[in-house]
């Protein structure tokens, strides 16, 4: 062995998002000049840098290299102790590799973000927003949820009322807002409110939203009904005051003296009903033999059954069996029918044909699931269409296949591990260019909402 090493200190502590350093001292105990190459190994290697990467030492001399550890401020920086190592390879004695080891302790941190989807909801009797809570820290978060507004005009039903979120994951909470007073006439009213996410011992995180309460009847109808009622009362008053007194001048004609009153005609004689005919029992006609041994035209036997419809989940599971890694499969609902599913960047829909997509069916593998919702032309986010979630290998749907519902304008979604990319073909435009989500984050894909243009085709990759 021609090498002596020492880590100073061997164990250190570091906060995610900051750095710490360790001095590695190296002495050439051989009798020739040698160059030593340093390479971090182990789970902490992506966070570790060595400066300098190569050190040249004369016999009997000592040199120092600096190891810098910089764990990111994300959920990937798992809290706790992490062993690390540095591989030292001499240039002159390549087989005499030395691997000194140490320990880095990553401290815990908590970071949470909450978002209302959509931020503004409309309704006569209720509104149904959804709250997405992301745990961006490296420790499990437990929080309670509540709602509040100025004037206590709304009541809140939040399900679930408490959430526990693992590092790097998200929880989706459904809320129902109900106005305490119903607006019968007048214009719509905007009521600001806030949903609070509270962790023990910390200040709550408030997410602001707006509930737009619509009136049951339009404002002009109240004035019209009042005018009609006033005219009716005036008409009845005038009629009762000036109605003419109508008397009949008709009188019964007196009988002439000596006239003979004719007898009343005698009542008709009751005649006995005719005797019923004797009931005759007829034998029912014999059923004709329909040629049971023969075959009828268009008989119903022996037809082949239609093959079952293949969904995006069927396609992605078949692809996962033959190919490792992450995959995404999808199909489009166009012209009142589902297309066959395609995968990993292939085109779904009909670009440039003027046939909008009404619904999308998506399934993924290798991403720990997918979640999102669709946007509709002229209406934005629709509360009637719920937010969708699906695990790996399961079907998720955007939009609606109902004939009365509009076509898709776009969608917002994300995968829980990695990122997802899409390219959308928009009516009267062209392919809008590929857009990718940041890892674990939502992003909108499709037509700009102010254009009110529908989707005709998509290409998706993970």
TrEMBL record:
GO molecular function terms noted in the UniProt entry: hydrolase activity
Keyword Hydrolase on entry: yes
InterPro entries reported in the protein's UniProt record: ChW
Transmembrane parts of this sequence: 220-242
Region (Disordered): 251-319
Protein origin, superkingdom: Bacteria
Compositional bias of kind Acidic residues: 279-290
Pro residues: bias regions: 263-275
Biased segments, Gly residues type: 291-302
Keywords from the named record: Hydrolase, Membrane, Transmembrane, Transmembrane helix
Protein name: Hydrolase
Lineage: Bacteria, Bacillati, Actinomycetota, Actinomycetes, Kitasatosporales
